[in-house]
Amino acid sequence: MPGQALEFIEGNIGSFYDGQIARVFCSLMSVNVNIQFKKSNSVAIQDLKPGMYLLDEIALKNGLLLVPKGVFLNPSLVDKILSLSSLLNMEKEIKVSF
Are the beta carbons of 35 and 83 closer than 8 angstroms? Predict the structure, then answer.
C-alpha cells in the first residue's frame, strides 16, 4: 500500500535516504498520489487507521486546519490526531479511502 511505502521511506531517513530529498518526496506523494482504492467510507475520528487516505480535511473545533485532505495517514499522524481529541469534534465522520 502506498501509505506503507511512504512510512518506510520516512522511517529510514538518514540510513537509506537523504533527509531533505525524502521529506520533499513524501510530502509530494501524500498530496498528489492518484490511486484507485478498494473501498471508501466515512469513519469516526477515533477509528482512523494508518494507511487510510483522507478525502476530507480534519479541522479543530475552532476551524483551524489540522490535516488537509489528500494525506495518507501514518502511525505517528494518527497518534497526533488522537492526542488532540479534546480540540476536535469527535462526533464528525471523515471520508477516507483504503
Answer: no
Encode pLDDT of 22-53 as tens digits. 777 777 776 544 455 568 899 999 999 999 99
Query: What DSSP assignment string belongs to 25-37?
Result: HHHHHHHH-----
Q: Which amino acid is at 42?
A: S
pTM above 0.85, yes or no: no
Largest CA distance in the chain: 41
Domain boundaries, given as residue ranges, for the chain: 2-97
Phi then psi for residue 36, to 5 deg, are -90, 125
Distances in whole angstroms, Cα of residue 87 to Cα of each of 35, 46, 58, 62, 79: 31, 13, 11, 8, 14
Neighbour tally for 73: CB within 10 Å: 22
- Phi then psi for residue 65, to 5 deg, are -70, 125
